[in-house]
Amino acid sequence: MELISERIKNIGKLRVYMLVESTAPDLSKEISEFMSEALTKPIEVKSGSVNIALTFLWSLVNRVAKHLEDAGEEVLDIEFSRGRTVIVTKRGYVINIVVRQRQNQYVAEIEGVVDVEESPFKVEDF
What we know:
The protein is an alpha+beta fold. It contains three helices and seven strands. The strands form two sheets. It has a five-stranded antiparallel beta sheet with strand order 1-7-6-5-4, with helices on one face. It has a two-stranded antiparallel sheet with strand order 2-3.
């Protein structure tokens, strides 16, 4: 049991840092916004009546999912919002994926971090 707890807490060490440089400020801003969204959640693409969700292997949400799967943990709830994803697990962990953006005229910085909190509850099967 201790091993699983440590594996989940180690998820908090995940970090991603990206730097986008361009002589076209609008282009670097658009790339920055796309990358920020791709780090925290699947990107939805709609073409006619077909909906496709793309999750990039390098995204933080994918890396967190892989860690949870390896630890044998189950996800109870997931909430996507702009710049943040919150995941609640069966053992009572709350995992926050947060992305911050900074931009000047030519450079956009994207930083994604993962924070793990242990809540006071655990979900038990009845």
